[in-house]
């Protein structure tokens, strides 16, 4: 079961939540010093301990309990303890990633093409602020276990995502000025839960009255002349290529062949969105392009699709008219 928290709706838990419902916890694939990696390892130990404790509490106590029955009093302390472990672990990760992000900008103050990474950092900071708001709000529900539980769940979820987003930003910075297609997992984007928000009243549905019409006169079937096949304009033709690199500065063919691609295929260059992008091959199907991708074995290379001379997402290319052989 995936839990989505949305503005304007009260959170109702229909089942007991286990720790698996938190956003996926992942470490960013970035280069760190030995001491920094030890901190990440320590952070994961804390998070694992928090996960185990949260899971135990979720199984033992019903998160729908809204009152303050005596048997639920121990649960409040256990939730706080689990939340503290998550907080320490996630902040430890965030601080390691954040320090490296700050170091990048101190060394490369004029770096360009990093709007996505900057947004990740801004999101991470905002999520941490929202998490703190949830933690403070939780203490207002010391006699309402359900709301207490929900608020800490949201705080922990926001902190998990914040650490991941900061790590993703660092991944962009460490790869700069090269640009790659990063396959990030889909996060559960957790928003602040507003217990005072009013529920929308369901719209009144007017009954539909079926109208009975008199039968119409049936006309003889009109036979249309056979249409001639339409000519497919070039603007609708789509093709697939393998992108091997991209750079904010133009790279020579010699540099690309010495350092990235040593094969005999022609390397095409395209200047797009402030980047010089380099590709090989031109295929009718995505499968053919993927075959080349596997053969060249270039780290972080990926398949791209073009339509009408412009890059389009691969999902938008499916079903389109393909280039003629």
Mean pLDDT: 78
Distance between the termini: 46 Å
| Residue share in helix | 40-55%
Q: What amount of the residues lies in strands? A: 5-15%
Report the radius of gyration as a whole number of Å.
Answer: 27 Å
Largest sheet: 5 strands, antiparallel
The secondary structure category is alpha+beta
- Please count the helical segments: 7
Notes on the protein architecture:
- This protein has a five-stranded antiparallel sheet with strand order 2-3-1-4-5.
- With 325 residues, the chain is an alpha+beta fold.
- It contains seven helices and five strands, in the order H-H-H-H-E-H-E-E-H-E-E-H.
Quick overview of this protein structure:
Helix content is 43%, strand content 10%. The chain is of the alpha+beta class and 325 residues long.
Write out key terms for the chains shown.
5-stranded antiparallel beta sheet, alpha+beta, Alpha-Beta Plaits, 2 domains, 5 strands
Task: Produce the secondary structure layout.
Blueprint: H1 34-60, H2 73-107, H3 115-138, H4 145-175, E1 238-247, H5 253-259, E2 267-272, E3 275-283, H6 286-296, E4 302-307, E5 310-312, H7 314-317
Antiparallel strand pairs: 1-3, 1-4, 2-3, 4-5
Helix pairs in contact: 1-2, 2-4, 3-4
